[in-house]
Amino acid sequence: MTAQDMTNTNSGLEISNADAVTMRLVLSGSWCLQDRLPSVESVIHQFSSDPGIERITFSSDGITRWDTALLVFLSKLNRSCQENQLQVISDGLPAGIRKLLDLAASSPATKDTARSGEKENLLSHIGNTTLDIIASAPDALRFLGAALKA
């Protein structure tokens, strides 16, 4: 696969093969919500069209600034890589991004909120909601702290 440059005026993404089984993504420029960002689908298409790809690596030395837009891009990419059984090696990403991605990946799955056949009385509903809020508070505070630190 030859290098494919998807650079625009705001953010850049270059896709190349580091070796026969490794796809390398080089990120550069600004990766913020107001910027025009490359699509995750273009990366997914690249590795889907090459069945020999087993892992994805990153180089982010060229990133000038980032916000949640980069987190969303990488989260979608991680999810697709998991579905396609590809290993994601995030060592080349900024430390703050790696921490936030790890935190997002380790958060517990939300419980099914579908109603059961029984109707819950008001007092039980208030009590259960309060217990749910108290139980999720430490995770929310950890996430907030990691986001502020990053």
Keywords:
single chain; alpha/beta; 5-stranded mixed β-sheet; 5 strands; 24% strand
Can you walk through the features of this model?
By secondary structure, this protein is α/β, with parallel strands linked by helices. The chain folds into 2 domains: 4-106, STAS domain (Transcription Regulator spoIIAA, 2-Layer Sandwich), CATH 3.30.750; 119-150. It has 4 helices and 5 strands. A 5-stranded mixed β-sheet has the order 1-2-3-4-5, covered by helices on one side. Helix 2 (68-83) packs across helix 3 (95-106) and helix 3 packs antiparallel against helix 4. The radius of gyration is 19 Å and the shape is elongated. Mean pLDDT is 82; it is low at 1-9.
In short:
The chain has 150 residues and is of the alpha/beta class. Helices cover 43% and strands 24% of the residues.
Q: SSE string, helix = H, strand = E? A: EEEHEHEHH
User: Rg from C-alpha positions?
Assistant: 19 Å
Q: How many beta-strand runs?
A: 5
Shape: elongated
Global structural class: alpha/beta
What CATH first level of the largest domain would be assigned?
Alpha Beta
**Averaging pLDDT over every residue, what do you get?**
82
Stretches with pLDDT under 50, minimum 5 residues: 1-9
The share of residues in helices is 40-55%
Element layout with pairings:
Blueprint: E1 4-5, E2 11-19, E3 22-31, H1 40-48, E4 55-66, H2 68-83, E5 87-89, H3 95-106, H4 122-149
Parallel strand pairs: 3-4, 4-5
Antiparallel strand pairs: 1-2, 2-3
Helix pairs in contact: 1-2, 2-3, 3-4
